[in-house]
Amino acid sequence: MTIHQNLIGGTWTGSNAIENINPSDTSDIVGLYARADAADVQAAIAAAKAAFPAWSRSGILERHAILRKASDEIMARKEELGRLLSREEGKTLAEGIGETIRAGQIFDFFAGECLRLAGETIPSVRPNIGVEITREAVGVVGIITPWNFPIAIPAWKIAPALAYGNTVVFKPAELVPGCAWAIVDILHRAGLPAGVLNLVMGKGSVVGQAMLDSPDVNAMTFTGSTGTGKRVAMASIEHNRKYQLEMGGKNPFVVLDDADLNVAVEASLNSAFFSTGQRCTASSRLIVTEGIHDRFVAALTERMKSVVVDNALKAGTQIGPVVDASQLAQDMDYVEIGKREGAKLVFGGERLNRETEGFYLQPALFTEATNQMRISREEIFGPVASVIRVKDYEEALAVANDTPFGLSSGIATTSLKHATHFKRNAEAGMVMVNLPTAGVDFHVPFGGRKGSSFGPREQGRYAAEFFTTVKTQYTLAG
Ligand code: NDP
Prior knowledge:
- The protein is an alpha/beta fold.
- It folds into two domains: 3-247 and 452-476, Aldehyde Dehydrogenase, Chain A, domain 1; 251-433, Aldehyde Dehydrogenase, Chain A, domain 2 (3-Layer(aba) Sandwich).
- Helix content is 40%, strand content 23%.
- It has 15 helices and 23 strands.
- The N and C termini lie far apart (68 Å).
- Bound molecules: NADPH dihydro-nicotinamide-adenine-dinucleotide phosphate.
- NADPH dihydro-nicotinamide-adenine-dinucleotide phosphate (NDP) binds next to helix 7 and helix 8.
- Keywords: Metal-binding, NADP, Oxidation, Oxidoreductase, Potassium.
C-alpha cells in the first residue's frame, strides 16, 4: 500500500505511517497515512510563514480560480469521496456523499467571497481627513479538526482562510486522515503556491501541541472537545494569538403538547441518532410536556425499532457504526451510568453484531430522566438520548437553558407564541423550530455560546471576522 504523505512547503513527505481502519469492518484498511513529528510541524509553519507575504497580496482572481477549481473537483468526485468518508468515519454513504457535496458548496461560496472583499470609507470627525477601513489577512492560520465531519469541517476552515489571503497549517483528527489528504491534494493540484497550504497528520498531543506551542502561528481555529479547546485557548493567550473554538453541545429539543406528533418524532429521531449521534448539534435531551409525553415516547420507540443499523456502505443502512472502540466503550458506559442514576432504558443500548466486524450500537432511549443526571449534563457523543418530562412550556424553556452548553436548541410546537418566545429566549447560537437541532446551511453563521464556542462565528460572510484583521487608515486630504 502506498503511504499518503504530509504536504510541507509544496512537497509530499513522510514515511512513518499508520493504518486508517474502517469502523464498519475492522478488517478493511482504508489506507496508510504518514505521521508527522514536531520537526515536521516546525517546517510546515516556517513554509506557511514564508509563503504568506506573496499569497496575502495575490490577486483575488487567482484565489477565486483555485477555490472554484477545488469545488468543481470535489463535486465531480462526490461519490468516490463520499464513499471514502463513510469508509473511514462510519456515517452512511448517503450522509458521506451529502457531506462531500457540502464541502464542494463551501469552496464555491468562498471562491465567490474572494471577489466580494470590501472595506468602508468614512468621513473623519476632523476636517480634511479621510478614513478608510480595510480588511487584511491575519497570517499563518493553524487548523485543528475533529473526526466527526472529516471533509465539511476542514472545508469550512480552509476555504475562508485561503480566500482572505492567509496561509495554513492543517492538522486533521488522526482517525480520519483520508478526506483531509484528499482535499489537500485537490487544492495543491488546483494551483496553490508551495507553502500556502500544509498538511501535518498525526497525534494531537504531538502535532497539535507543536502547533499550539509555536509563536509563528498567528491564528488558531479549532473544533473538538472542551478539554482540548481549553488547551488551545491557554496556549493562544500565551502567544497573543487570535483563536476560535467550537466545542461540545448538550442540545435540547423541546416537544410541547400542541406539537405535530409526526414532526416531533421525526425531528427527534434525526437529531438524536442520525450520523450515529456523533454531531455536536445532536440532541440528547428531549424535553417533553406531560400532555404529549406518553404518546411521544410510544411513537418514538416504535419508530426506533424500524431503524437499520449496519455497515455504512450497505444499501438500506440508516445508522452506521460508532467511530472506534474507545468511543463505543464511552457510549456504553453512559448507558450504564443512566441506568444507575435511575433513568429507565426503554429501547436499545446494546452492542450489535453484523456481517462485518464493526462498532455497532443499537440507539438508546431513556425516559424518566432528570436534568441533573450525568446523562443530561455531559456530552455523550453517541446515539444515546433521554426524555425529560416537564409540566409546561415555562418549565421546558428553563430546563432547555439549564446546561453549561449553548450550541443548538430546538422546539416542536404549532404555537406561534411559544415558537417566537423560544427563538428569543433559548440560550444557544442556533435555534430550530419544527426542525432537527442538527442540519444547517453553509452560507450563514454557525456556532454557539456558553461552553460550546468562543470567538467569532464560522461559515458564511461572518467567517471574515476571524480570518481577517481590520485596519483603519487616516489620510490628510491636503
Ligand atoms: P478532541 O478534542 O480530542 O480532538 C479534536 C482535535 O484536537 C483532533 O484533531 C485531536 O487530534 C486534536 N488534539 C488532541 N489533543 C491535542 C492537543 N494536546 N493539542 C492540540 N490538538 C490536540 O475531540 P474529538 O476529535 O475526539 O471530537 C469529539 C469532541 O469534539 C466531542 O466532544 C464533540 O462535541 C466535539 N465537537 C464539536 C463540534 C462543534 O462544532 N462544536 C464539532 C465536532 C466535534 P487527534 O485526533 O489526533 O487526537
